[in-house]
Design a protein that fits this description.
- The protein is of the alpha/beta class and 189 residues long.
- It is built from 7 helices and 7 strands; from the N terminus they run βαβαββαββααβαα.
- Strands 1, 2, 3, 4, 5, 6 and 7 form a 7-stranded mixed sheet that branches.
- The longest helix has 15 residues.
């Protein structure tokens, strides 16, 4: 089975490698736009499938993995910040509250498409302006949904509770990926 990972995320690449799979990085070009009336818990799966459908036709023996992660606070989507000001706004909203992180994954083969979503609840301690400034200046979280990476300083210092998979919050629900890839390996052999 030839695994293709359609992601620019260094975290997703690292996690798939750590799961023990060999894979090739491919690119997918699509506008990540979803219907405005789509339920929050369905957006990550929708975007993951959108990316999968934008990829070229797969050959037999290939499996494409696409993923998308969104951060939601009280049903409001906190995407990737545009700049430092936007990043601070997002992190102030998350400070002292519990939010959800949804990661959708799609596995596509020559004959089938499987999409799953995993969710984790993340609770932050209060975050001071001094801590926000330090984090944003040092880590530049502008490529991250919700403007933070759980594996970085802010996650280590300020997340006080997690319900769900740490790796879902990182952007790849590894338990789902592993299970689905093993199932696909068995059905293809």
């Amino acid at each position: 089975m030839n695994i293709l990972l359609a992601s620019n995320s260094p975290r997703r690449k690292e996690l798939l490698k750590e799961l023990g799979f060999d894979f090739e990085i491919v690119s997918v070009d699509c506008d990540e736009v979803y219907p405005t009336d789509l339920a929050v818990e369905k957006i990550a799966a929708y975007l993951s499938e959108l990316k999968s459908n934008a990829f070229r036709t797969l050959n037999p023996g290939e499996v494409l993995i696409t993923a998308d992660t969104i951060v939601a606070l009280n049903k409001e989507i906190l995407g990737k910040p545009n700049d430092e000001v936007h990043s601070k706004e997002m992190l102030r909203k998350l400070s002292g509250k519990t939010h959800q992180v949804y990661t959708g994954i799609t596995m596509k083969t020559f004959t089938q498409t499987i999409t799953k979503t995993d969710v984790a609840n993340v609770e932050f301690d209060e975050i001071s302006d001094e801590e926000l400034n330090f984090y944003i200046q040092k880590y530049r979280p502008f490529d991250k949904a919700g403007s933070y990476g759980i594996q970085e300083w802010l996650g280590m210092a300020k997340i006080k509770n997690i319900e769900g998979s740490f790796y879902t919050i990182m952007g790849l629900p590894t338990h789902l990926v592993y299970s689905l890839l093993k199932d696909l390996e068995q059905t293809s052999s």
